[in-house]
Sequence to fold (161 residues):
Amino acid sequence: MKRENYLSWDEYFIGLAHLSALRSKDPNTQVGACIVSQDKKVVGIGYNGLPKGCDDDEFPWGKVGDNLDTKYPYVVHAELNAILNSGADLRNCTLYVSLFPCNECAKAIIQAGITRVVYECDKNWTSDGAIASRKMFDAACVTYDKLPKRYTIHIDIEDNV
Ligand SMILES: O=c1[nH]c(=O)n([C@H]2C[C@H](O)[C@@H](COP(=O)(O)O)O2)cc1CO
Ligand SMILES: [Zn+2]
Fold:
């Protein structure tokens, strides 16, 4: 008889997105994204971080002050990193992401041909960025689904072998 308590596809892929977020150096918000093809293959994965060649220890991670002295002009968002890290054709793929995408990522998601977004947290739901994202997703027929519940996936590598 097969195991009962295995991960669902949604749990598996959002779990991968969360694992990826653990690589983020952002001290405030760690976001992870995972792109999955129609036949359930992972074709892209990423987290919010600086572009290649930009030193994590040299660039700022703060939120306030002069814009150029904050992280905002420099950080590549998780969704965009997942798209850029993929070499695959992303048409009709699903993007799993821990936070609802901002409008800049929404544009990249649409242009890449991704047709479904599954997200977990929508703490930014009423921000202008998220409102613009929804306008564009609706116009471009990109569906967006919030995962129905939060859950814990426990990974203990020592115990797992
Ligand atoms: O869609 C997103 N994807 C994404 O990776 N991020 C990243 C950029 C920043 O590193 C961080 C947001 O930082 P903060 O919550 O401190 O403003 O999350 C932020 C958004 C905004 O929704
Ligand atoms: Zn974004």
Summary: Residues 77, 79, 101-102, 104-105 surround zinc ion (ligand 2) (CB under 6 Å). The radius of gyration is 16 Å.
